[in-house]
Specification:
Layout (H helix, E strand, L loop, with lengths): L5 H8 L3 H8 L7 H13 L6 H8 L4 E6 L5 H16 L3 E6 L4 H13 L4 E4 L9 H8 L4 E4 L10 E4 L1 H14 L5 E5 L5 H16 L9 E3 L7 H9 L5 E4 L2 H13 L9 E6 L12 E4 L2 H16 L10 E4 L2 E3 L7 H4 L2
Parallel strand pairs: 1-2, 1-3, 3-4, 4-5, 5-11, 6-7, 6-8, 8-9, 9-10
Antiparallel strand pairs: 10-12
Helix pairs in contact: 1-2, 5-12, 8-9, 10-11
Keywords: DNA-binding, Transcription, Transcription regulation
Pfam families: LacI (PF00356), Peripla_BP_3 (PF13377)
GO molecular function, one term: DNA-binding transcription factor activity
Length: 341
């Protein structure tokens, strides 16, 4: 079936094409009843703007470049769903690139997005990124950029993240309130923003309950498949009674390592993660975690970027928007004695 056009809508409703066009743009020049008729007819026939025609008319590609460390990561796949939903509703297409945790690939993919005339960029920084000069150069050329999840204070752009501090505080507090005192924290490379925020929340909860911060219980892992097990072995020599992992990927690695060593969870050691992947409640035992609002982060980031592109926000406001997290308590951290209370 051929795609319906503005001319088709105009002919069917006996209106001019300019009236239909303005009604679809929600112009104040068109009366509400006409807008209603046009929009209802357009929705009924599944009208979608022609991106090529719009790009020629507006001198914009109506394309957003999205750069993430890895699409296979559950958080980023959900965030991309949120980004695409907003972009589609506002007439934009999305091109997705992966940095695979490499600074060099991040720079190369951003250059590809710019070469393809993307109107703006949404970026979650790779673990290898510490030089932000290439982004500053793009900002000097007036390219709208919004950072999400992994962000940096060194870039003067809007940042959209989860409340990593609050989520980590809640997770650690839950473990303390269930009787744990030697809480090991397994996290990702230390220079990443979410690492710092989650570590800060962990430390703040310990401080509030007068538990000394023990740096020997902190371990940093990369993104390899076999890194967690030796770290767990090393931590077990320090007799922890709980593990708080800064991601569910790390938490599942802890779960596997502890079960191999016949360490009962949560009777001997409690475990809690961060993200709330879809299989968390199917594990044995079901895994406690902090729910990270990935889809909402993607939606807010996309909306903010499109507002910048369309000039609805004339000057980028570099502040950070933090979207609330939610603690999900399951059997991996809930002792029977606390279940009864």
């Amino acid at each position: 079936m051929d795609a319906i056009t503005i001319k088709d809508i105009a002919r069917a409703l006996n209106l001019s094409t300019s009236t239909v066009s303005r009604a679809l743009r929600d112009s104040y020049e068109i009366n509400p009843e006409t807008k209603r008729l046009v929009i209802e007819y357009a929705e009924r026939l599944n009208y979608r703007p022609n991106p090529i025609a719009l790009s020629l008319k507006e001198n914009r590609s109506r394309v957003i470049g999205v750069v993430v460390p890895q699409i296979a990561n559950n958080f980023f796949s959900q965030a991309i769903n949120g980004i695409e939903a907003i972009a589609y509703n506002r007439g934009y297409h999305v091109i997705i690139f992966q940095s695979h945790e490499s600074y060099e690939r991040e720079v190369a993919t951003v250059q590809q997005a710019v070469a393809r005339k993307a109107d703006g960029l949404l970026i979650s920084l790779s673990s290898g990124t510490s030089d932000f000069s290439y982004l500053r150069q793009l900002q000097e050329k007036k390219l709208p950029i919004v950072l999400f999840d992994r962000v940096s204070k060194e870039i003067d752009s809007p940042c959209i993240t989860a409340d990593n501090f609050g989520g980590a505080f809640a997770a650690t507090e839950h473990l303390i309130q269930s009787g744990r005192r030697r809480i090991a924290h397994l996290t990702i490379p230390p220079h990443i923003s979410i690492t710092q925020e989650r570590l800060a929340g962990y430390r703040a909860a310990l401080e509030q309950y007068d538990i000394p911060y023990d740096e020997s219980l902190i371990r940093y892992a990369g993104f390899g498949h076999n890194e967690v097990e030796p770290i767990v072995d090393d931590l077990l020599t320090l007799s922890p009674d709980a593990f708080f992992a800064a991601s569910d990927r790390l938490a599942i690695g802890c779960l596997s390592a502890l079960k191999k060593r016949n360490i009962s969870i949560p009777e001997s050691v409690s475990l809690i993660g961060f993200t709330n992947i879809s299989v968390a409640d199917l594990l044995a035992p079901p895994m406690s975690t902090v729910e990270q609002p990935a889809q909402e982060i993607g939606q807010v980031a996309a909306g903010r970027l499109i507002d910048l592109i369309e000039g609805k926000q004339k000057i980028p406001q570099p502040g950070t928007i933090r979207i609330p997290t939610k603690l999900i308590v399951r059997a991996s951290s809930q002792l029977e004695s606390t279940l009864l209370t």
